[in-house]
Design brief:
Elements lengths: L3 E5 L4 H8 L3 H20 L6 H19 E5 L5 E3 L4 H10 L1 H18 L6 H13 L11 H23 L9 H26 L2 H10 L3
Antiparallel strand pairs: 1-2, 2-3
Protein name: Thiamine transporter ThiT
InterPro entries: Thia_Transptr_ThiT
Pfam family, one: Thia_YuaJ
Length: 217
């Protein structure tokens, strides 16, 4: 069984958009979420400077690109990416939880558009809005980005497990649905967490943070 399968998977935009807009409830849900994001940005326009919004955009773009690089394809399903959560975790570490959650939600929407798997509007919210949005909670650990990253990834794991139990129970067959969902999501998120820990240990986190905060663009 060949699990190691490093490759770049380009999104099929046409097919993805067809999936997203195949059900009016799905795209109406997405529109409602976008409206809420705009309201949030408007309400916090004094705090969300042009510099911060630029950094959020850069982080989301980098996270989306990294997510296309698949390192492992797990036997139960799901793929391990090249540290796709790290840019969002960095935003949370630098600018705090609220900004990190906003970046995570935007990343979730981009991921939804590029490669959706939607069977219900609530499942969309759990798997793409909440699961990516909670990555912003890494910002609670301002003095330890590794601990913050681990905490955020665990929260994402919990979101996906709940979604799996509620909406994908039929895939479990005779297996306990909780065990199935935990194994399915754990087999790719555990390696993702390990990769994130290794990368965050290797790169000069505090130096990068200082340079970003000092930047004037």
């Amino acid at each position: 069984m060949n699990w190691f399968n490093f490759k770049f998977k380009a999104p099929k935009i046409g097919e993805a958009l067809t999936t997203v807009f195949s059900n009016p409830i799905i795209y109406l849900t997405l529109i409602a979420i976008l409206v809420l994001i705009l309201i949030f940005v408007h309400a916090n326009k004094g705090k969300l400077t042009t510099k911060i919004m630029l950094h959020i955009s850069m982080a989301v773009a980098l996270a989306s690109i990294l997510k296309m690089f698949r390192i492992l394809k797990m036997p139960m399903g799901g793929s391990v990416t090249l540290g796709s959560m790290i840019p969002i975790i960095f935003i949370a570490y630098i600018y705090g939880t609220r900004t990190g959650c906003l970046a995570g939600i935007i990343f979730g929407i981009v991921d939804l558009i590029l490669g959706p798997e939607v069977i219900h509007p609530v499942q969309l919210i759990i798997d793409y809005i909440l699961a990516f949005g909670v990555l912003g909670f890494a910002g609670y650990f301002k003095n330890n980005i590794s601990l913050g990253a681990l905490f955020a990834i665990i929260l994402r794991f919990i979101c996906h497990v709940i979604s799996g139990v509620v909406f994908f129970a039929s895939y479990a067959g005779d297996q306990n649905v909780w065990i199935y969902s935990i194994l399915y999501n754990g087999t790719y998120l555990l390696p993702e967490a390990i990769i994130a820990m290794v990368i965050l240990f290797v790169i000069p986190v505090n130096r990068i943070k200082t340079q970003i905060l000092r930047s004037t663009y």
